[in-house]
Each structure stands twice: as C-alpha cells, then as structure tokens.
From TrEMBL:
SUPFAM superfamilies, alphabetized: PLP-dependent transferases
Catalyzed reactions per annotation: L-aspartate + 2-oxoglutarate = oxaloacetate + L-glutamate
Keywords for the protein's UniProt record, in alphabetical order: Aminotransferase, Pyridoxal phosphate, Transferase
Enzyme Commission identifier(s): 2.6.1.-
One Pfam family here: Aminotran_1_2
Domain Aminotransferase class I/classII large: 35-381
Family under the similarity heading: Belongs to the class-I pyridoxal-phosphate-dependent aminotransferase family.
Full protein name: Aminotransferase
Cofactor section: pyridoxal 5'-phosphate
InterPro entries (alphabetical): Aminotransferase_I/II_large, AspAT/PAT-like, NHTrfase_class1_PyrdxlP-BS, PyrdxlP-dep_Trfase, PyrdxlP-dep_Trfase_major
Organism field: Mesorhizobium huakuii
Keyword DNA repair appears in the UniProt entry: no
C-alpha cells in the first residue's frame, strides 16, 4: 500500500482548485494582469494595519478569547446595527480564522457522514469541497440562466431535499454569478427551510457590494431569532483583508459554547493583535467600503462596455459582488480557454469549470481593480476573442 492509499478517502478525493491550477500556471508571467482571484488590488488601509501594529507592539501576543475578544464582538454588533438596522448582543458572534473557517465550523456542527447539504450552483468551489471533506454529500441545485439573467427556482431546491438533508448553503450576492436574491426569493427559501426543518448557512459576504440602492437583501430582514440560520462572513472583501484570514459566524446565543469548543479544537482562536485591526475595520471603515463599492461599480461598467462591444461575449451585468461571469461564442471548454488566455492575452481568468454544474462554459473575471489595468485587460481579451 502506498503512503497516499492509507489516507482517508475524503482527503484523497479533495480536488485541486480549478482556479489555483490556472494561477499556478500563469502567476510568474511578466506583465500578466491577474483577474482570477476574488480580491482587489489595494493593500489593507493604514487605519487597520496601524491598529494591529500598535497591538502587536504592545504585547497582545498571548492566548486570547476563543470566541473572539469582547471589543471585536461588540464592534460586530455595532456594524449590524448600522447596516442592517438590527440590535444583536455580542453573544451572537463568534470570531473565526477566515470566512472559510466559519463555513467549516458550520459544516462540522451540522453535517457528517451520509448527510446532505444543498448549495446553489455555479458556486464558489470551496463549499462543495469542504462539505465532502466533512463526509457529507454536497448536492448542487443549479441557478437558472436566461436572457433575463440568473434566477433561483425555489421549487428545484424543494425537489432536492431528502430525509438526509441537513442544510441549505445560500450565497447572495453570489460568487461567481453576481446573482442577488430579492426579498421574495429569500422568504420562499426561509419558508421552505422552516417547513422541512433544515438549516440555512447564509453566506452574505458580498452584501455591501451591491449595485442597487444600499446593501443587498438579507435573511436578517425577514428572519426571527429562533430560525435555524448560521450567518458566515469574512473581513476579506469589504476591508481589503484577504490575507489576514479573519471571519465570523453570527448565531443564536444558545450555540455559543458549542462554537467556542469547535474553535478550541480547530485553530484555538484568532491572534489578538489581528482582532484589533478587525475592530478598526468595523468602526472606522464605512467610508473605505463605500469608496470600494463605487470603484467596483465603475470597473464593472467599464469591463461590460468593452467586452459587450465585441459582439462575442455574453453575460448578465452583475447585481452584486465583483465578478463578471461570461461566455464567449464558440467556447465550450472554459478550462482550456483560461490557459489559452494566459498564453495569448496575458490575462488571468478563472475557468467556469471550477464553479460546478452550470458554470462549465463560463469564465470569471474579477473586476475589483484599478480602471487602467481593467481597460487594458478587457482590450486584450477583446483581441483574443477575434482569434477564436
């Protein structure tokens, strides 16, 4: 028996990220414009890094609160009061080592061997893989796509629920499609979850990156305190903190000890000096976030204008998040196309094959970057389209 054969089947079956495969192929190309990853091009702003540096220099380097320092959990409560108009006690928040960690902890709490978790596809691939690693069975339900854009047929979700279903994973605004659920759709999903007695894992990480009026609709607008919803989120996107790996879970106060125990036996808590930076992000960062959303809106419109003018690119202008999910006439294998684009256009995109059922023919472009780079990348892509 080889070394790898002695590993758990779930570990052996964990797929290579289809996004990272393209990144590794092209990351060292001189002059390449990288639009493949889900992050902006700005470093973390000084008001956040200064707070973390001050705490680090002040000796905040010891073991700390497993569920997060009180100051950060109180700052999260203030954040929700400002942006969602809801008052929550600090006991409803658990600090995690990234949004991905928040998802893993939620899955650990809800689903094990043989259980099923439903998610909407195309989807960020990490949820599918994390569910499978936990021993659960990830069940994709595809969003509908037409000339009117992306939409969610709640009846398809209902048809996918079985006695083994433990949770529905709902990401809105969506990575990669930009689909954003309206209140009517959220209510229908919540009514279904209540009727079937299943949990919702609500990933609303992009709720502030919404190009309508104000933030995106949220389950918080319609849920009661007793609804079975775990809200997972991250500091990565709003405050340019992708490399910090700090996130949170909002949950019912009665579940705090369970999640504290899960934190203890996974990463044992987030470094306290990093949490100080997160406090600054929440309390001082609203202006920065608003600037980033407006910057992303301009970037979206620029890229859509250039690619749309080719007559070859097909897409729905995204309502939320900061990705353009598009097809190119005549291209059906997006993985091969993504590598070809690296070679011939010197632009890095994520292949739609990485995002599961419904995404195979698409390419994902992250437009959360400065306009001159995006304009150059879009023109390179337009030139490449003329050759295929």
């Amino acid at each position: 028996m080889s070394l790898i054969d002695s590993f758990r089947a779930e570990a052996r079956a964990a797929p290579e990220s289809g996004i990272v495969a393209v990144v590794n192929y092209g990351r060292l190309r001189e002059g390449l414009i990288p639009l493949w990853a889900g992050e902006g091009d700005l470093p973390t702003p000084a008001f956040i890094t200064d707070a973390a540096s001050k705490a680090l220099a002040g000796g905040e380097t010891f073991y700390t609160w497993q569920r997060g320092i009180p100051d950060l959990r109180q700052a999260l409560a203030r954040y929700y009061a400002r942006h969602f108009g809801k008052t929550f006690p600090e006991e409803q928040f658990i600090v995690t080592g990234s949004g991905m960690h928040a998802i893993q902890m939620s899955l650990t709490a809800l689903a094990g061997a043989g259980d099923e978790v439903i998610y909407l596809s195309p989807a960020w691939p990490n949820f599918d893989a994390a569910a499978a690693l936990s021993g659960a069975v990830p069940v994709p339900v595809t969003l509908d796509h037409s000339g009117n854009g992306w939409s969610c047929d709640v009846e398809k979700i209902a048809s996918a629920i079985t006695p083994r279903t433990r949770a529905l994973f709902i990401n809105t605004p969506s990575n990669p499609t930009g689909w954003t659920a309206d209140h009517e759709t959220l209510q229908a999903i919540l009514d279904l979850a209540r009727a079937k007695n299943v949990w919702i894992i609500a990933d609303e990480i992009y709720s502030l990156f919404h190009y309508g009026h104000g933030r995106a609709p949220s389950f918080l607008d319609i849920a009661t305190e007793e609804d079975r919803i775990l809200f997972v989120n991250s500091f990565s996107k709003n405050w340019a903190m992708t490399g910090w790996r700090v996130g949170w879970i909002k949950t019912h106060p009665s579940l705090q000890q369970v999640f504290e125990n899960l934190i203890q036996y996974s990463n044992s808590g987030v470094a306290q000096f990093m949490q100080r930076g997160a406090v600054a992000a929440l309390d001082e960062g609203d202006g920065f976030v608003a600037e980033q959303v407006e910057r992303a809106r301009k970037a979206r419109d620029l890229v859509c204008g250039i690619l749309g003018a080719t007559g070859r690119a097909r897409f729905t202008v995204p309502q939320g998040a900061f990705y353009l999910f598009f097809t190119v006439d005549g291209i059906t294998d997006s993985r091969t196309a993504a590598f070809d684009i690296v070679d011939k256009a010197n632009v890095g995109l994520a292949p739609g094959t990485a995002f599961g059922p419904g995404g195979e023919a698409f390419l994902r472009l992250c437009f959360h970057r400065r306009l001159d780079q995006l304009e150059e990348a879009a023109h390179r892509l337009a030139k490449w389209m003329k050759t295929v």
